[in-house]
């Protein structure tokens, strides 16, 4: 890869009723990986697993021209208040169906059939790419290392999502 990578502005949202900044290993793992890859952290927040609070934060970031990527962790399961897909799917202009499929394929190799309980989601909204990952640190590592590191790298060929959110490119590049 001879051309330089174009860093993206990334917002990270941890969705949890119990985590704090001190105990949020999943959100911190995403922050560490995205900054190590050369991207910029726009903001990191934690909100309870509540459809409307999740939706409010994500909608605000989607409307913010400075945010190019939103990564969420948590709320993708089937228990109790898990509601990330319901909160975020209505905000998307286009869903990235292959993201959930590929994540579960990679996750299958690590946790077996339990991966069917992951309702991770990806999509595009207002020139912002949004990825919803499960709340475990391992799942965040799997999603970043197996998919997001390449798809958020403007040099990755034959195509990537970075080039869809970089204003001067607006294409696969």
Automatic annotation (TrEMBL):
Gene3D superfamilies per the UniProt record, alphabetical: MoaB/Mog-like domain (3.40.980.10)
Superkingdom in the source lineage: Bacteria
Alphabetized SMART domains for the sequence: MoCF_biosynth
MoaB/Mog domain sequence ranges: 11-155
Key words of the record: Molybdenum cofactor biosynthesis
Entry-linked Pfam families: MoCF_biosynth
Pathways involved: Cofactor biosynthesis; molybdopterin biosynthesis
Function: May be involved in the biosynthesis of molybdopterin.
Family of this protein: Belongs to the MoaB/Mog family.
This protein's name: Molybdenum cofactor biosynthesis protein B
């Amino acid at each position: 890869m001879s051309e330089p990578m174009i860093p993206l502005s990334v917002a990270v949202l941890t969705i949890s009723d119990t985590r704090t900044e001190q105990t949020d290993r999943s959100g911190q793992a995403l922050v560490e990986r995205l900054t190590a890859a050369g991207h910029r952290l726009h903001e990191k927040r934690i909100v309870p697993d509540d459809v409307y609070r999740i939706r409010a934060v994500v909608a605000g970031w989607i409307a913010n021209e400075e945010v190019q990527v939103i990564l969420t962790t948590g709320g993708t399961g089937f228990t109790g208040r898990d509601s990330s897909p319901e909160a975020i799917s209505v905000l998307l202009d286009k869903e990235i169906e292959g993201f959930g499929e590929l994540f579960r394929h990679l996750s299958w190799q690590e946790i077996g059939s339990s991966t069917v309980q992951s309702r991770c989601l990806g999509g595009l909204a207002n020139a912002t790419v949004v990825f919803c990952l499960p709340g475990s640190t391992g799942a965040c590592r799997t999603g970043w290392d197996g998919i997001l590191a390449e798809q958020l790298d403007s040099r990755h060929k034959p195509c990537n999502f970075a080039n869809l959110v970089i204003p001067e490119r607006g294409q696969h590049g």
